[in-house]
Design brief:
This protein has 260 residues and is of the alpha/beta class. The chain has six helices and 14 strands.
């Protein structure tokens, strides 16, 4: 059994990114001995809708932000999904990149967000999308598919991860209040249709023109909501039996009847 902690961070513009990073890293430190795996939201240092901060706070994979995340994972001996950050790469390109870190402080994997939100605004025109479908083996939640926010609307990604062996999905997000019902329904749908655990960490607070909607959730392979946060900053916990995904797929073998 694995205990997961989701830190639903308040990303209100009233707090500077510098202050928030220090505060949230302390929250991660406080999880030592309380869980096995900590998950943070999308772009939590600046907030998912703070478009003006994307380039000023962009860093390489060996920059100060990633280094600090790796250090806190090593200090605590915890697995850490560090949410995502704006990655500067290949000259002046930017990507929304999430990071999964082992307890020894080494990086297990990076994932560049494939589906960029905003249509003709925001990250959709400011960032470069990724191309790689990531399933990381041997995490505390089994073989884990990694995704970010808007990816949730595209079932093909999660089905591809499922085909590649995913027993769970870990998603960091900055999903706003006006569409929070979509968030709740889609998380359950992705879990049910792939018979996999779904661990989804959102953020809260007023960020840019949006109020972030919270409702971070852990959903079982059967579609049951194990735990769900509200709309304020909080930390929620869930105990995950990784083997339940394989057992449910055996007991109710819908995936073998796929035609397309």
């Amino acid at each position: 059994m694995t205990r997961v902690a989701l830190i639903q961070v308040d990303v209100s513009d009233s707090e500077s990114p510098e202050v928030r990073v220090k505060r949230v890293l302390d929250l991660v430190r406080d999880q030592q001995g309380k869980c096995d795996f900590v998950v943070l939201p999308e772009l939590w240092n600046v907030g998912a809708f703070n478009n003006d901060a994307l380039r000023p706070y962009a860093e390489s994979r060996d920059g100060a932000f990633v280094t600090a995340l790796c250090e806190v994972a090593r200090e605590t001996g915890l697995w850490l999904h560090g949410g995502s950050f704006v990655e500067l790469h290949d000259g002046d390109k930017l990507s929304n990149t999430s990071i999964l870190i082992r307890p020894d402080g080494t990086v297990a994997t990076f994932y560049r967000k494939i589906h960029l939100f905003g249509f003709d605004t925001g990250e959709a025109i400011m960032l470069d999308r990724g191309n790689d479908i990531i399933v990381e083996d041997d995490t505390p939640v089994g073989r884990a598919g990694i995704a970010t926010c808007y990816d949730l609307r595209f079932p093909e990604l999660f089905r591809a991860q499922c085909t590649n062996g995913a027993q769970s999905f870990v998603l960091c997000s900055g999903w706003p209040i006006p569409r929070i019902n979509h968030w709740r329904v889609l998380i359950q749908a992705r879990a049910i249709e792939n018979q996999a655990w779904f661990i989804a960490c959102n953020e809260v607070g007023q960020n840019g023109d949006y109020t972030l909607g919270g409702h971070s959730m852990v959903v079982s392979p059967k579609g049951d909501i194990i735990v769900e946060a509200g709309t304020e900053e909080e930390i929620i916990y869930a105990d995950i039996d990784v083997d339940l995904a394989d057992q449910w797929r055996k007991d109710f073998p819908i995936l073998r009847d796929r035609v397309l």
